[in-house]
Design brief:
By secondary structure, this protein is an all-alpha fold. The protein contains ten helices and no strands. The chain starts with 6 loop residues before the first helix and ends in an 8-residue tail after the last helix.
């Protein structure tokens, strides 16, 4: 939305930093520029992308490695319902708020459990994993952040570093 805003860099910074790092960055940003980082992000972005970044900057993401299998199954059901109508038929439109809420809140281990639960609960669906669901139902900057959130930080950093030294990486290849 804002002229000169680097959505790619916002994606990378918000998706690859811990809640503690984002909290520290927000405090430093306020001290350095006398502005609230969340307010600036709200001004410079819009829609579901804005909501995703704001949720990440609110620093509420679970940073443990804990897995709640029952919660994973319930979340898999919520994601299915977010992409299907009440008759269970796939909908062209997805409730992106559900994706944003889940991906901005859950830790990588829980996201893997959600993906496994989705695959187990809906084996006959055309799209059976969380990553494939993100590819199918999200687009643009929201999809870019979502795909980054689904990878563990080390894997993502290694892919980015390899791309940086080989010259092929860009944020769309994540």
């Amino acid at each position: 939305r804002g002229w000169g805003t680097s959505e790619e860099l916002l994606c990378e910074l918000c998706a690859t930093r811990s809640a503690a790092e984002l909290g520290a960055a927000s405090k430093a940003y306020r001290r350095m520029f006398d502005k609230e980082l969340i307010t600036v992000v709200k001004t410079e972005t819009s829609g579901h992308f804005e909501h995703f970044l704001v949720r990440l900057l609110e620093c509420t993401r679970d940073e443990t490695d804990n897995v709640d299998e029952e919660g994973a199954a319930a979340t898999a059901t919520a994601l299915f319902e977010a992409t299907h109508n009440e008759d269970g038929e796939e909908s062209f439109f997805a409730n992106k708020d559900t994706f944003v809420r889940v991906l901005a809140r859950e830790n990588p281990s829980q996201l893997a459990a959600i993906s496994a639960a989705y695959e187990a609960q809906y084996p006959d669906e055309e799209v059976t994993t969380l990553e494939a669901l993100v590819d199918d139902k999200l687009s643009g900057d929201v999809q870019r952040v979502a795909k980054m959130m689904l990878k563990d930080r080390i894997t993502l950093f290694c892919e980015m570093l390899n791309g940086a030294v080989t010259g092929w990486w860009n944020d769309k290849s994540v």
